[in-house]
Amino acid sequence: MAHQFYFNPYILDNLPAPSSGFDVVQDISEPRLRMYVTSRGIKTFFVRKRVRGRDRRIIIGNYPDMEIEAARAAVPTVLANVMKAPKTRRNKTAFKKIINAYMAHRVRRGEVSRKKLARAIDRHLAPLFDKNVTEITTNDVKVIIENISGTTIAARMQELLRSIFNYAAEQGYITKSPLDGVRRITPKRRVRPLTRAGLQRLVRAIEHESSPTIRGAFMMLIYGFAPRSKIFSMQWRDLDFNHYTWDERPLSDMAVVLLQDLPQNGRWVFPGRGGNHLIDPRCAWRRVATAAGIPNLTMDDVNKFFMRRLVWASNKEDFRENMNQLLTESLA
Hints:
Strand content: 5-15%
Radius of gyration: 24 Å
Mean pLDDT: 90
Shape: globular
Low-confidence stretches: none
Distance between the termini: 40 Å
CATH class of the largest domain: Mainly Alpha
Strand order of the largest sheet: 1-2-3-4-5
Structural class: alpha+beta
């Protein structure tokens, strides 16, 4: 059940973030207005409404970008719009056009993640692109899903298709999704193999790498508290050693020491071939992971290991202290 209180800037600015997942709070002045508070400290206004038999949660905006009074005023309009019956569209519309509209209006991702999703769509859903969305059958969708190798990817693409067809139904392009009644694929949850002991073995294996660039990049995967794509594309201009920050995000003490010992020549902290930054040193990583006794370890597993344990704090110094404490405990 949501915690209820009168929304005001002082209380919302000082709401504690949960250690994991998200909390929901509710406004007393406008009981239909609620707010998500994530473990990363992001606060989002939303309303909840049952529409045509389905529970829907409609995002209004993020706080403090949207003021409280503006969010309250938007509630009646949002609820009125969501209850309107979709206008039935009788013109033939290619499925590719529906995907483009879905990507533009429903997908909220960064540029890199959006491009990755677009590549997956082009790879797996291309046979449906030129078909009229009203003519796509349940069997067509099943054939697409069955031709995808890997349970996890097939499950993700099935859920993506379900979301796209639901969007098409909401916009009036179809009256019923071809995925209605289709059994959901249950992916096998991958067990991330990294433990504290494995992390310490990994550090020792990285220290034996001959390339200083590879060695530094792999150590920053541990010290940097960021995904590999962010680590490998670090630029010197984004680092501020006076305030121990990297593009406005705090740096751990171990990261600062590591970065200050690297040669600061060129644009990239970890340069790769052809004047670009380091991209994907998978062979070197496989060698390091095997030497650490964890051959199935991925670079993303390292970031997940720390982010699951890191305590979020809105204050940069407190957050930085939490990073230092976690590193000390994990590498002791």
